[in-house]
Design brief:
CATH topology of the largest domain: BirA Bifunctional Protein, domain 2
Shape: elongated
CATH class of the largest domain: Alpha Beta
Oligomer: single chain
CATH architecture of the largest domain: 2-Layer Sandwich
CATH superfamily of the largest domain: Bira Bifunctional Protein, Domain 2
Distance between the termini: 43 Å
Largest sheet: 8 strands, mixed
Bound molecules: histidyl-adenosine monophosphate
Length: 418
């Protein structure tokens, strides 16, 4: 074999795409009911867009971006996430002038050069949703309710929602100072990356997967003891709205998320069925990002859901019924083959999934193929059936046969055949 997919990249195979399509369908209908519109930015952006929004010290920017340089020496990067692109588009096209509250969604691939493992790929897909332009706790709660509605609609259970508040940059700086002091005391227990981060960006130590660093942060001070009154009131109100929406959650003061742009509410929806990659969805508020990127000082909140992780969980839960043809028409003899070809295409135009034989095989071989495809029904038409105007309709599950008038074929399947 000369070529295979690149490490960390994968084919989504024909028997898997059904689940992806279902997710896409269900997702779109939920977005519609919450008033979200689709946006499709390009896959590549200027490198600086990501380094300035996600943060130089994050794993994503410091280690994981697919970056190339164009002929004029400009850095371009395959998007590792969607929020930065969305905010760039919001500013560039002044979307806020059309409507002060923009609710946007995006479905598509992202690229991160991480070490591949279960639930972690180098090309993966996200469903991303953002509300731009509203500072209030109701949009925080609404975006979380929307996330939960997506999981409910696809029938995924066994998830837990964790929330936290990171305060605003002012009140967070007091915490950052306290955390830095704490980390400096424990510096010898930290990995080399975190020894540096303890000074440059102490919150990022919370993301580190190294065991020693995990132990150190488990006893770190809680950010919730440091955030200001306004941020505390906001966080309490988000919790109240989740309670009245009947959404269970737990507060986790160590949930800082691996991107620098977050302010106030952060959240993650987790599973215990994917090993180390336990986050199926993550998000939060990023009130300063638009201004930081040269746009208006507008608040925003959003989330991204990892489609591969969701699909794996759905498959493990066994809730996927593979789609099957509505009808297989077995034509026997040259005359019947021509009629069958025509009928199959008429029925397809009426929206049915119809299969036929392509190689003039006998009845036994055709029935075998219909069975392998899982066809619900088989219509058998040979010379005798053409002469009498009545075909034999076989229900494959019930293993029962009836006669049916061939003139009624189209109306039968359009109205009650399925
Ligand atoms: P994130 O936590 O980096 O957040 O990614 C969101 C989700 O994408 C994760 O919970 C996970 O399900 C999936 N994901 C991330 N990396 C991989 C990977 N290598 N392989 C498979 N799945 C992965 C963000 O991307 C933020 N932009 C979310 C956000 C939107 N915050 C505000 N608005």
């Amino acid at each position: 074999m000369d070529f295979t997919t690149i490490k960390g990249f994968k084919d989504i195979l024909p028997w898997e795409t059904g689940t992806w399509q279902r997710l896409d369908r269900v997702g779109r209908s939920i977005f519609r009911s919450f008033g979200f519109q689709e946006i499709m930015p390009p896959l590549m952006e200027m490198t600086e867009l990501f380094s300035r929004s996600i943060g130089e010290d994050t794993d994503i920017v410091s280690k994981e971006m697919y970056t190339l340089t164009d002929s004029r020496g400009k850095g371009m990067t395959l998007r590792p996430e969607a929020t930065a692109s969305l905010v760039r588009a919001y500013i560039q096209h002044r979307l806020y002038e059309k409507n002060p509250i923009q609710k946007l969604f995006l479905i598509g691939p992202m690229f991160r050069h991480e070490r591949p493992q279960k639930g972690r790929f180098r090309q993966f897909h996200q469903i991303d949703a953002e509300i731009l332009g509203d500072p209030g706790p109701r949009s925080d709660a609404e975006i979380i309710v929307l996330a939960m509605a997506l999981f409910e609609a696809v029938g995924l259970t066994g998830l837990s929602l964790q929330i936290n508040s990171l305060g605003n940059p002012d009140c967070r700086s007091a915490f950052r100072e306290e955390l830095r002091k704490y980390l400096v005391q424990k510096i010898t227990f930290l990995c080399t990356d975190c020894q540096r981060r303890a000074d440059t960006n102490p919150l990022r130590v919370f993301d580190c997967k190294v065991e020693g660093c995990g132990e150190v942060v488990s006893n770190a001070p809680s950010i919730l003891d440091y955030i200001c009154e306004d941020c505390t009131t906001h966080f309490k109100s988000v919790q109240e709205y989740l309670q009245i929406s009947g959404i269970p959650f737990s507060v986790n003061h160590r949930l800082v998320r691996g991107l620098d742009y977050y302010t106030r509410t952060t959240f993650e929806i987790q599973t215990d069925r994917l090993g180390a990659q336990n986050a199926v969805l993550g998000g939060g508020r990023y009130d300063g990002l638009s201004k930081q990127l040269g746009g208006p000082d507008h608040p925003a909140i959003g989330f991204a859901l990892g489609i591969e992780r969701l699909v794996t969980l759905l498959d493990e839960q066994g809730s996927q019924a593979a789609p099957v043809p509505d009808l297989f028409i077995a034509g026997l003899g040259p005359e019947a083959e021509k009629k069958v070809f025509r009928w199959a295409n008429d029925l397809r135009r009426a929206g049915l999934w119809v299969e036929i034989d392509y190689s003039s095989k006998g009845l036994k071989a055709q029935l075998k193929r219909a069975d392998r495809l899982g066809a619900r029904k088989v219509l058998i038409v040979g010379d005798n059936e053409l002469a009498s105007g009545k075909g034999i309709l076989r229900d494959m599950a019930a293993k029962a046969q009836t006669e049916m008038a061939l003139d009624d074929l189209l109306s039968y399947f359009k109205n009650k055949g399925q």
